[in-house]
Amino acid sequence: KYKQKIPISGDDEVAQLGHSIQLLGEQLQEFEDSRNDFLASVSHELRTPLTYIKGYSDILNKDIVKTREEQQEYLQIINKEASRISLLVNDLLDMSKLQAGQFVLNKQQANVNLIIKKVFTTLKPAAAEKGIILSLDLAEDSPEIEIDVLRMEQAIFNLVENSIKYTNEGHITLRSHVNNEFLIIEVQDTGIGISPEDLPKIWSRFYRVDKSRTRSTGGSGLGLYVVKLIVEAHNGVVRANSTENSGSEFTIYLKI
Ligand code: ADP
Predict the structure, then answer these.
(1) Is the ipTM, as predicted for this complex, more than 0.95?
(2) Domain HAMP: where (predicted)?
(3) Residues 6 or more apart from 158 whose CB is under 8 A from it?
(4) pTM, whole model, 2 decimals?
């Protein structure tokens, strides 16, 4: 739609304006393409669980299920798929608020260690359930910095939740340390790791390394995208390092 190129000659002010308008048109086109990709992904993500729910409820409706166990099994699938939709919708809402830039960071002076401890306490039972040892290694001299406590908690939560999801045995360590410029938060696991080809892509919306595997772990593929939005809104940087079959390390750098 915006791709039509009008030849512009000369370099006077009118020509410069023409070039600017052309550039704007190209940007609009890019925006529209990415919006279409996004809508296609969301529709796809919703359709899969809905297909399950529709299919299994049809079977239950037809009264052809013989045993109570079978009935129970189908109800559980329906329940699980409904939870998946609910999780996806929550993530989408989070993302749209963050992305629209309409979310105002509610900043206050806070100690990151307290946030890390809260995430630790919340997720320790989930780790223990999988036989994973979750431990803390916090900087003693961590200064208070200006952050949106709830948002930062969500970012750290997403990272630790992922580490639990993608670790089958071993350790996860939550670390904080300080250097001249940055307060550094690290989440390190001994999990399944990420291949070098996948590593740059994990930050994209809806990207999941292995669709079938993550399907059973119930991710939406939005977790890391939301982490990046939150950290960048704080003018911070987030990086991932990983070795396949050995473990991953996610690091958030916040300016002091
Ligand atoms: P999801 O909801 O699928 O977990 P995320 O955006 O949080 O989506 O993560 C994107 C993908 O990155 C995941 O599907 C997974 O393949 C990979 N990933 C994220 N964290 C880890 C980790 N700690 N270890 C291994 N793989 C990970």
Answers:
(1) yes
(2) 1-33
(3) 223, 224, 226, 227
(4) 0.74
